[in-house]
Write a structure and sequence with these properties.
Length: about 450
């Protein structure tokens, strides 16, 4: 009997510490590294919030607005605001402050005709229906900031960097590192982590070395290097395809001819891009929206047909074309492969740096933020500068709109790519949001650094 009791006590003593380790702890500094500016990407969303937010399921959830209603066939929307919210400096987040932020965000090129504060709500009206407005307002473009904060700018910021209301606030910028501190008064609840230190402009190889040497906690894993990261035992967390790699095609000069733009579309071997350049981590596609979002992407077959490309080009001899692409990693390899494909179709193509202006062709990436196909398509068109048609809500209407866009051959989809990040062993509960960004609010650390 005593022996059984002793064994039970021993078992409990072993289980108790293990159970304690499963509970998240507060405190510690999370060290994040990125190839871009430390203020870019998902970091801004930790500081600023939108009227709406994209949940883990990809659907639209309340943010600074708790509810919204549409009237007059989606021509008028009213968003009812969460009460008691304050910016990081203690200033109240009022309907007037939100209206000023939204107006500054789009600088006159807004998706609505009028917008005004009405009591504790914001009212949008438009001459055209706005069925996707709740999803659109969750995008980075419309995150709310205090335009009157007068605070110093963080690197790369276009507004006061301390004028947000998010889970973290800017506490300092020094030696290229951006430091964020937990917002104790966040309406979402205080994050587990005390401080986030973000170092930007770090090469991927340097990020991985810092992770291995315990100098970093979260690092990037580009889509074309996921397999390499796995071979190096980084254990990357990989999202579903949430980035659309596409070719923007100019409509000026020789490329004003639709046949030439169509010849370019038929010249590209997407399957080689997916299997060779991106190591089978990307899905070849001739659709803008991924299959998991639209449900119809399979209807656009990513076929290459050189004979058809030559036929469409006919005797049209386009001038030497420039193809702009970022100078890093798989992007350059993809650009070189595309240029080779186009030369095989009779085009003369030169790859130029992605910063080049007025290029005939440009390799671009467009994020897929949520599970609303109409809203995702609208955001892509806004980002690319394409004309914005009224997009219906049902799948058939979205399909017709996307088909019409693709028929213009000004935006040629190539691949759907995942996002991936690797984390150190001390990072717990690490997972990615629907859009492939790390969900920092749920992360905790085993021990402070």
């Amino acid at each position: 009997m005593l022996r059984k009791a002793a064994i039970s006590c021993l078992a409990l003593s072993l289980v108790a510490p293990a159970a304690a380790r499963t509970r998240p702890r507060y405190g510690g500094t999370l060290r994040v590294e990125t190839t871009g500016d430390p203020w870019s990407g998902f970091i801004r969303r930790l500081v600023f919030e939108g009227l709406t937010d994209v949940g883990a399921d990809g659907n639209i959830h309340p943010g600074l607005a708790t509810a919204w209603t549409a009237e007059n066939g989606d021509h008028r929307w009213q968003f009812h605001l969460r009460q008691g919210i304050r910016f990081h400096d203690g200033t109240a987040v009022t309907s007037t402050a939100i209206a000023a932020s939204l107006e500054a965000s789009c600088k006159g090129n807004c998706p609505w005709t009028t917008m005004r504060a009405l009591g504790s709500s914001i009212v949008f009206t438009s001459e055209s229906p706005m069925p996707g407005l709740p999803a659109l307002l969750s995008s980075d473009e419309f995150l709310i900031h205090d335009v009157n904060s007068g605070k110093p700018l963080a690197p790369g910021a276009t507004s006061g960097s301390d004028g947000g209301s998010g889970s973290f606030q800017v506490s300092g910028v020094a030696n290229g590192a951006l430091t964020l501190a937990a917002n104790e008064a966040s309406w979402r609840g205080r994050p587990f982590i005390d401080v986030i230190e973000v170092r930007g402009h770090r090469a991927v190889s340097d990020q991985w070395m810092d992770l291995a040497a315990s100098r970093a906690d979260i690092v990037e894993v580009p889509a074309g290097e996921i397999r390499q990261a796995q071979q190096q035992h980084l254990a990357p967390v990989v999202s579903d395809p949430v980035d659309v790699l596409a070719l923007e095609v100019s409509t000026s000069g020789a490329l004003a001819d639709l046949n030439l733009r169509s010849a370019i579309a038929w010249s590209i071997d997407r399957n080689v891009l997916a299997s060779v350049i991106f190591q089978r981590q990307g899905q070849a596609s001739a659709a803008l929206l991924p299959q998991k979002v639209s449900g119809y992407a399979f209807l656009f077959q990513p076929q290459r047909d050189l004979n058809k490309a030559h036929e469409l080009r006919g005797g049209l001899a386009a001038q030497s074309l420039s193809l702009a692409a970022p100078t890093s990693g798989a992007w350059q390899l993809a650009a070189q492969r595309i240029a080779l494909n186009l030369r095989e179709a009779g085009f003369s193509v030169q790859v130029v740096p992605g910063t080049a202006t007025n290029a005939d062709l440009a390799l671009r990436s467009f994020p897929v933020a949520g599970a609303d196909p109409a809203a995702d398509l609208e955001q892509m068109l806004r980002a690319s500068g394409e004309a914005l048609p009224t997009i219906g809500r049902d799948s058939a209407a979205v399909y017709r709109t996307e088909r019409d866009i693709l028929d213009r051959r000004t935006l040629i989809p190539l691949l759907h790519l995942p996002r991936a990040y690797a984390a150190s062993d001390r990072v717990r509960d690490f997972h990615l949001r629907f859009d492939g960004a790390p969900d920092i609010d749920d992360i905790s650390l085993e021990a402070a650094p």
